[in-house]
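Input structure tokens:
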């Protein structure tokens, strides 16, 4: 993949900022990562280490959580709990723990809090690994990240986020909407392949008229999992991040 140099008078696309190699003084590790409901500043995208795919990804893929919980109304915390339930070592965080953690975080730096405090229960802390920025417009890198690094966190326009039960599908979303919510990509494939993968989990979709049959993605949003077509995803996404690893388990001195 070739990265274009900044053009000066025209802003560099955010996807290129996410894919560019950052300058570093070597002064030590910094904490990068999205807050969730507001777009990450351009300088944070440019400074975050980019995700680098190595090797091919499966033609189709779906990661499914242990179970879905009524974790939180705040999409940041719901998708954090979903990630922990979806990626190895797969741990279900009860809604009460999620809500208690959100209160403890308050207005603190969200990404830093999840890398240092995390969800705490039964004598263990479930932390986030370091974040890597991801160029979501590069299909090969996006597929590789979903299949190999765990579900991908994306900043999206809230028009894409449904509150329906799992098994929804959406398409035809327009570009130009503000990024004001976050979601999680946990699978991909052509529509028929994804339908088969959902059915293997006991979830049967009712497709809207005109649903594209080509490349699509499985997306967790507002407590449910559904399918979005690739063009709609490109239209409503403003950033993408990978936790590497998704979960770090730390033993605590006392039971939390």
């Amino acid at each position: 993949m070739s990265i274009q140099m900044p053009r000066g008078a025209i802003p560099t696309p955010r996807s290129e900022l996410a894919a560019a190699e950052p300058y570093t003084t070597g002064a030590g590790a910094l904490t990068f990562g999205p807050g969730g409901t507001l777009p990450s500043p351009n300088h944070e995208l440019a400074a975050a280490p980019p995700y680098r795919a190595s090797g091919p990804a499966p033609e189709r893929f779906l990661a499914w959580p242990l179970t879905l919980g009524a974790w939180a109304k705040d999409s940041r915390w719901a998708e954090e709990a979903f990630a922990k339930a979806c990626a190895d070592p797969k741990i279900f965080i009860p809604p009460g723990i999620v809500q208690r953690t959100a209160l403890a975080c308050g207005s603190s730096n969200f990404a830093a809090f999840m890398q240092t405090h995390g969800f705490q229960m039964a004598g263990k802390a479930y932390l986030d690994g370091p974040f890597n920025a991801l160029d979501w417009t590069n299909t090969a890198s996006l597929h590789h990240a979903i299949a190999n690094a765990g579900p991908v966190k994306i900043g999206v326009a809230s028009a894409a986020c449904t509150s329906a039960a799992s098994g929804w599908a959406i398409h035809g979303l327009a570009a130009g909407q503000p990024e004001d919510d976050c979601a999680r990509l946990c699978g991909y494939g052509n529509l028929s392949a994804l339908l088969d993968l959902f059915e293997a989990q006991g979830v049967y979709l009712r497709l809207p008229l005109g649903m594209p049959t080509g490349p699509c993605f499985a997306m967790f949003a507002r407590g449910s999992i559904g399918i979005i077509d690739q063009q709609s995803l490109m239209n409503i996404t403003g950033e993408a991040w990978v936790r590497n690893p998704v979960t770090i388990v730390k033993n605590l001195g006392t039971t939390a």
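Helices lie at 14-19, 42-47, 75-86, 95-105, 110-116, 139-148, 191-200, 230-236. The mean pLDDT is 87.
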